[in-house]
Amino acid sequence: MTPIKNCIVNKDTTTNPIWLMRQAGRYLPEFREIRKNNQDFIKLCLNENLSSEITLQPIKRFGFDAAVIFSDILMLPYGMEQEVNFEKNFGPKLGDLSIDKIKKTDENSFSKKLNPIYKAISQTSKSNLLKNRDLIGFVGAPWTILVYMMNKMSPKRGLPEKFFNDFSLINSLLNIIE
Question: Which PROSITE patterns did the record assign (predicted)?
Answer without folding.
Answer: UROD_1
